[in-house]
Amino acid sequence: MGLGMANNLLRARVPLVVYDVSEQPLQQLVADGVSVASDPADLASRVDLLFVCVPSDTESTSVLFGNRGVANAKEGLPVVDTTTMNHGAALRLAERSRGAGLNYADCPISGMPFRAEDGTLTMMFGGTDEQFLEAKPFLNIMGEFIVHCGDVGMGQLMKAVNNIIYDVNIAALSEVMPIAVRAGLSVETLAEVLTTASSRSFASEYFVPKMLRGEFEGDFSLSAAYKDIVNMREVASKMQVSLPVVDAMVSSYDAAIEMGNGHESKSAMLKVYEERFQQKVRLAKESTSASME
Questions:
Q1: Looking at the domain covering 2-152, what would its CATH class be?
Q2: Angle made by CA atoms 116, 169, 156, in degrees to the nearest 5
Q3: 202: pLDDT confidence band, cut at 50, 70 and 90?
């Protein structure tokens, strides 16, 4: 995701300095003439605004406060953290950043790697009006839908709400499709209606074709994305409310991980119900007829 975002800034002729622990994205950017820092502290000393895009708050903490981290280099530096993390973790990072003289805002992103490459991400900003106005010209280059969600941490909360509803959609598809095929509907009919009729969603448009081809790799994994569930559970616990629909989705999510599919995408929830109902949902490999394995 970070590489796609950097490429869009580069195409807009924004001067860039970059750093990554992985060589592959750096090699591509170096080939395009981008300057590479030796570590986060070096990076911070050479920029006026820092975007962070890493897997979790653990890596964000290391980038900001680790040995040769950002906080060692430049007091007052504006930091926009596009990492998806727990709402509470964002608040803790913001508090620690204030103590270290950093100007921290959260801005998780949504839209899959292809939208990062296209510059069409949805970006959910949490921070002050001043922080938002400073970052917005660059956010507009990397994203298509830019939303100021409120104070720091509210971007993470909005991302969690978005992803939980997305997960509910995937769980519903996973549960209903096998029983629909077992009851007599063809796989082709399911694919056509679920991606065009009133049940259509991004989840169905993106995942139904992959499910029917048996493709469960290449997307954000169940295990890696579990932080959204933790996020919503913490919010629900704090507010002392129950979330029965979310809890039902989580049971499917947990079952898929317990089956050993945690490294696969969220669409692997389908396998839970294929096993329970003894009905696979696949397009035949060498014809357009349904595979009734």
A1: alpha beta
A2: 50
A3: very high
Q: Answer for the pair 19, 12: CB distance below 8 angstroms, yes or no.
A: no
d(CA 110, CA 125): 12
Under the banding of pLDDT at 50, 70 and 90, the label for residue 286 is very low
According to CATH, where is 3.40.50.720 located in the chain?
Answer: 2-152
Question: 207-240 burial, b if ≥16 CB within 10 A, otherwise e?
Answer: bbebbbeeebeebebbeebebbbebbbebeeeee
For residue 291, the model assigns a pLDDT of: 35
The whole-model pTM stands at: 0.88
Strands 35-36 and 50-52: unpaired
Question: What is the rounded CA–CA span in Å between residue 227 and residue 244?
Answer: 19
- What confidence tier does 292 reach under pLDDT thresholds 50, 70, 90? very low
Segment 65-71 long-range contacts (CB within 8 Å, at least 24 positions apart): 65/96, 65/100, 66/40, 68/39, 68/40, 68/41, 68/42, 69/40, 69/41, 70/40, 70/41, 70/43, 70/44, 70/102, 71/97, 71/100, 71/101, 71/102
Residues of the chain with CATH 1.10.1040.10: 158-291
Looking at beta carbons, which pairs linking 241-249 to residues 24 or more positions away fall under 8 Å?
A: 245/168, 246/164, 246/168, 248/171, 249/164, 249/167, 249/168, 249/171
Token pair for 32? 């395009």
Query: For 234-285, what is each residue's pLDDT tens digit?
Result: 899 989 999 999 999 999 999 999 999 999 999 999 999 999 999 999 997 6
CATH class of 158-291: mainly alpha
